Automatic annotation (TrEMBL):
Residues 9-187 form the Thymidylate kinase-like domain. Keywords: ATP-binding, Kinase, Nucleotide biosynthesis, Nucleotide-binding, Transferase. It holds the Pfam family Thymidylate_kin. It comes from Ambrosiozyma monospora (Yeast). It comes from the Eukaryota. GO terms for biological process: dTDP biosynthetic process; dTTP biosynthetic process; dUDP biosynthetic process. InterPro entries: P-loop_NTPase, Thymidylate_kin-like_dom, Thymidylate_kin_CS, Thymidylate_kinase. Belongs to the thymidylate kinase family. This is Thymidylate kinase.
Amino acid sequence: MTRGALVAIEGLDRTGKSTQTEILIKTLKQQGKAIELIKFPDRTTQIGQLINKYLTDKEFRLSDQSAHLLFSAKRWELVEKINNLLTQGVTVLLDRYVYSGVAYSAAKGLDFQWCLNPDLGLPKPDVVLFLKFKDDGNMKRGGFGEERYEVDEFQKKVKVMFERFDGDNNWRNLYVDGKSIEEVREEVWTHVVKYIDGLDTNVQLFK
Ligand code: NYM
Ligand code: MG
């Protein structure tokens, strides 16, 4: 039986992930495809509210490990929903996922494998589109906001950690330097189009 595809969009802050996911959702809905967007962190649930406080309130102290596990808990909170959607043939589009979880925490100095461990067993995306700058000088595009992590030097460390996933067979690098929203949209589409009508293989798990 055909299941929905699991598609993740990943990248540093200010690379255009949310813009592209919104465009993609709109396009697919217009085509009558069954698709659902899940954004990590979704800040509306109880765990999400704690994460939001952690990201926006610099006075809110939490050990790096504890913050990391909250982000992972956020994913586990939604795993049943994701699996149900996939089984029903719905394409699930993830705006950030496990890769952000590992990259941001490992960039703080936590062990990379330790960071991945709590996410083992989660459904693994069929394809990950990693929006990235080829030239780090372009990373400041649009300027960062006020949240924790939105600092140039830290983002460079996060990028190095993200790149450790490069080489995995689901990983696709998508360079955004100097490209318009429309140009990036076209590239996103070429990567996603072969997945949108579903897959006959089982969902892989992180292991
Ligand atoms: N982030 C996101 C993490 O540190 N760990 C995670 O597991 C996830 C999903 O949250 N700077 C960080 C990366 C971002 C921040 O995300 C908020 P966004 O997409 O800017 O709302
Ligand atoms: Mg952000």
